[in-house]
Amino acid sequence: xxxxxxxxxxxxxxxxxxxxxxxxxxxxxxxxxxxxxxxxxxxxxxxxxxxxxxxxxxxxxxxxxxxxxxxxxxxxxxxxxxxxxxxxxxxxxxxxxxxxxxxxxxxxxxxxxxxxxxxxxxxxxxxxxxxxxxxxxxxxxxxxxxxxxxxxxxxxxxxxx
Length: 161
Description:
The protein is of the alpha+beta class. Helix content is 27%, strand content 29%.
């Protein structure tokens, strides 16, 4: 399934985009995970938002990218969500690959840090993230910090840049 991507700061999203984002996040994080917490937070205003819509315009995949210095010293990816009706199709992986591509364009030299649900550690390891701290509980769910280190790319002559 091909997704149509929208990538923008909050103020550049349409009111419909914002509604769809908040609805999807509430469905996944509040209803599905039975976690009562205030999902919209101050990081939303200072973040990039990546929305993946299907051919009919339905929002089925979302994540936000928080600038360095806001949540962590490194830029971070969070609020990663795929609609429950579309699970098992590889869309979470596609979403993360697109998010990583956007991060590399914004910060080509930066490492990335995430606060991942512990049950998803292997998923994030497949994307190059490694555990970077002890288990902690956030909103009643076990989490771990993970980091994806920037690795300088080799040039044609073997030098690194």
